[in-house]
Amino acid sequence: MARIKNIELPNEKHVCIGLTAIYGIGRSLAKTICQEAGVNETTKVKDLTEEDIQKLRKEVDKHVVEGDLRREVQMSIKEKMEINSYQGIRHKKGLPVRGQRTNRNARTRKGKGKVVANKKKVGK
Questions:
Q1: Of 45, 48, 100, 120, which is least packed with CB atoms within 10 Å of its CB?
Q2: What's the distance, CA 68 to chain centroid?
């Protein structure tokens, strides 16, 4: 089993797809890394040689991924909150940051719906 940046890549997947298990590596970056390392994208992770794994590690080290990237993202969020930018205020309030509507959706950010006191219907 291949370990890169303390992440175990899934054995049964192609190298190109397996690399996306690392935070900060998507499909296009994974393809670029495979090409730079000279590893065939369609090779299964379990079939990689130790030499191939070393090449991939060397290429992945050139990019900001995993812990460093997570730390960078968290620091930028904290900075926005400190300077009270619009996005920082939205982060503080736990609301969507990127312009989505909030009057009917946004349950992921807002959490479970809150019950509002019942209003009785006026009957005829």
A1: 120
A2: 13
Question: Which regions of the chain does DSSP assign to beta strands (E)?
Answer: 3-4, 7-8
pLDDT in tens, 49-97: 999 999 999 999 999 999 999 999 999 999 999 999 999 999 999 999 9
Q: Whole-model pTM?
A: 0.78
What is 3-60's CATH topology?
Helicase, Ruva Protein; domain 3 (1.10.8)
- Exposed / middle / buried, residue 29 (Cβ in 10 Å: 0-12, 13-18, 19+): middle
CB-CB contact of 56 with 19 (8 Å): yes
CB atoms within 10 A of CB 104: 6
